[in-house]
C-alpha cells in the first residue's frame, strides 16, 4: 500500500499555534540546578508540564526542576518549586538562596534582607554582597516541623531519622557512604510504603564532630548534586542522634553548605553559595 502524502496533507486541518518567548536564568546552589523564571514578566501556564519538558537534558534546557519567582502580598517575593517530574514541593533550600541572588542582581530589589513566601511559610534571606554580586546567602529556614525514628521491618538493616523541613526527608547515617548504591536504593526508599507522599532520601557519613559528607536522592528529581532542605535535615538528624553539635558543614557532591540549629530561636540557619550559570530564552507553544 502506498501512502498518499499529498491527500493526507490536503485533508489535514492546519492549526496555527502561537509561540511566546520566555526569558529564564539557569542557576545553581552547590550544584543543585534549576531554571528560574520571573513570572511578573513571564507568567507560566501549566508549570508542572513545563518543569518536565524543560528539565530534560537532551530535549529541554536541562535541570533538576523549575523555580518560579513572583509577587506576594505577605512577603517581598514568592517562590514556587517544581521537581523534574513536575511535582510541586513545599520548599527548596538551594533554590531560595538563588532567588535571593536573582532578585538583587536583576534589580528587583536593593534590600539585602528579603522575605520569601513559600508553601512552607515565609523564609528570611540575608544576602552576602561583595560589590554588586551576591556570593552567598543565609536563609532562616524556620524550625524542623517533625522528626522521628524509622525502623524498616523488611530488607533494610537501617535505623533512619525522618525530618520534615516542609519537605519530607529520610536521613540514614552509615560508616562508609561509598558503599551505598544510591541509584538503586534511592528510588526504593523514595517510594517505600511508609511514605505515602514519597520522601527525599539522604545517606550521610560523619567526618568529624562538625563535618558531614552527604549524598541525596531527591523526590521527583533523582540524584542531585546537593539539596538544601536535605542538608538541614541531615544536620538536625545528626544533632538529635548526638553525632554532631548544633553547627556543621554538610559536604555534598556539588558543594558545601553550613547549617546551624540556633538554640535560642530553634530555627535552622543555612548558609551557602548561589551561582548564576547563564540567561536564556525558550519558546513556549501556546494552546
Ligand atoms: N533541592 C531542593 C528540594 C527540592 C524539592 C524536593 N525534591 C521535594 O520534592 O521535597 C532543596 O535544595 O531543598
Could you give a short description of this structure?
By secondary structure, the chain is of the alpha+beta class. The chain contains 5 helices and 18 strands. It has an 18-stranded mixed β-sheet that branches.
Instruction: Give the CATH superfamily of the largest domain.
Output: Diaminopimelate Epimerase, Chain A, domain 1
Strand content: 35-45%
Supply the CATH architecture of the largest domain.
Answer: Roll
Structural class: alpha+beta
Secondary structure tally, helices: 5
Number of strands: 18
Rounded to an integer, what's the Rg over CA atoms?
21 Å
Query: Helix and strand string, N-terminal first?
Result: HEEHEEEHEEEEEEHEEEHEEEE
Global shape: globular
Q: In CATH terms, what is the fold-level topology of the largest domain?
A: Diaminopimelate Epimerase, Chain A, domain 1
Q: Give the integer mean of the pLDDT values.
A: 93
Low-confidence parts lasting 5 or more residues at pLDDT below 50?
1-9
User: How is the main sheet built?
Assistant: 18 strands, mixed
How helix-rich are the residues, as a percent range?
10-25%
**Ligands, deduplicated:** the ligand N[C@@H](CCC[C@H](N)C(=O)O)C(=O)O
Task: Please tell me the total number of domains.
Answer: 2
State the CATH class of the largest domain: Alpha Beta
End-to-end distance, in Å? 35 Å
Q: In words, what does this structure look like?
A:
With 287 residues, the protein is α+β, with helices and mostly antiparallel strands. It has two domains: 17-140 and 272-283, Diaminopimelate Epimerase, Chain A, domain 1, CATH 3.10.310; 144-264, Diaminopimelate Epimerase, Chain A, domain 1. Helices cover 18% and strands 44% of the residues. It has five helices and 18 strands. The protein has an 18-stranded mixed beta sheet that branches. The radius of gyration is 21 Å and the shape is globular. The protein starts with a helix and ends with a strand. Residues 1-9 have low confidence and may be disordered. The protein binds ligand LBFN2T5F. The ligand N[C@@H](CCC[C@H](N)C(=O)O)C(=O)O binds at residues 32, 81, 83, 89, 92-95, 167, 200, 218-221, 224, 227-229. InterPro entries: DAP_epimerase_AS (IPR018510), DAP_epimerase_DapF (IPR001653). The record marks 169, 218 as: Could be important to modulate the pK values of the two catalytic cysteine residues. This is Diaminopimelate epimerase. It catalyses: (2S,6S)-2,6-diaminopimelate = meso-2,6-diaminopimelate. It is found in: Cytoplasm.
